[in-house]
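Re-run requested by the PI after the first attempt was lost when the workstation crashed. Everything re-entered from the original request form. Ligand of interest: pyridoxal-5'-phosphate.
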Amino acid sequence: MNLQLDAPNLGEIEQEALKACLDSGFVSTVGPFVREFEEVFAQFVGTNCAVSSQSGTAAIHLALYELGIGPGDEVIVPVTTFVATVNPILYVNATPVFVDVDSRTWNIDPEEVRDAITSRTKAIIPVHLYGNPCDMEVLMQISREFGISVIEDATESLGATFDSRQTGSFGHFGCFSFNGNKVITTGGGGMIVTNSEKAADHVKFLANQARDERRGYYHPEIGFNYRMTNLEASLGLAQFSRLSTFIQKKRLFRSIYEDAFKASKAISLQSEHACSKSSWWLSCISIDLDNLDLDELRKNIASLGIPTRRLFCPVTDFPPYRPFKTRDFPVANMLYQRCLCLPSSTLNKPVEVEKAAQKILQLLES
Ligand SMILES: Cc1ncc(COP(=O)(O)O)c(C=O)c1O
């Protein structure tokens, strides 16, 4: 058994796409695949525009920058997330305001968002954690009620839907990642989607060192080098052609885990909101046992050839973010103590996932 947690699935289609790109000579940021990838991406997500970027982190940074968020402004984020959701808020010298997550979906709790709003709140960054969509209906209602922007961190949720609409298409901006472990990969890259053509044009300009191409090398603003390369986009297009197969497989793995653990009183799974269809980028479980030593359990599971990963540690536990901790986060802490991400790579065979689930079950029941 050679189970993978989140390794990318690369094959002949990807090799051919990369070869075609190499043969064309356009390996850097000029070349036709970047535009093509942006077009098919926007069409799939259902937004007017998509702008590619160098990473998901760069996408979130550009979205905050485009919204003009800066010193003195507050941005509400869930405390259970990867630090890359939070760092861009600090890059623009704004203040992250952390809120707790929902114990069922593990996503930002809309009631907590409401309570955290002040006159300085400029944006909310909901994170569709592990591919599981947030309650976008309530979050967009809050956004309208208080005039606050929404930047969806959809870095983990490509292909997941809420009310049959793709994640990333609800907010003012949606940000995706194509890092090696994501639903599809470009090696490293990202995408920003929006319905505003004006914003998309300006984001594209900012990502290209704010270069006014009509005037040659003329730079009327300070920009960034946040572009995707043609080589990355060629890989992205190849991976994109396999997206529905990847999602079907990830959802199959999740149903295998669900079936295997349904009789267990100790194990529960991350849950979908009633209107959501998660991509289950990673299938994750919560283990409710007295005196649970999660790291010890991970070692025992690893000795069976099964890789796992702990849930994201609450961001405010890390030194740079401690000054922003103004309260406790009981749900995020509880989840961090109990939860594990299980093998979810589309390289895995369903029969191996089934065996792994049975072994984990036996270990926990022994
Ligand atoms: C929740 C979350 N936000 C942001 C990012 C940043 O994406 P990237 O690694 O492409 O910069 C990631 C992935 O790494 C992530 O998991």
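Saved to the shared folder this time. The longest helix spans residues 243-261.
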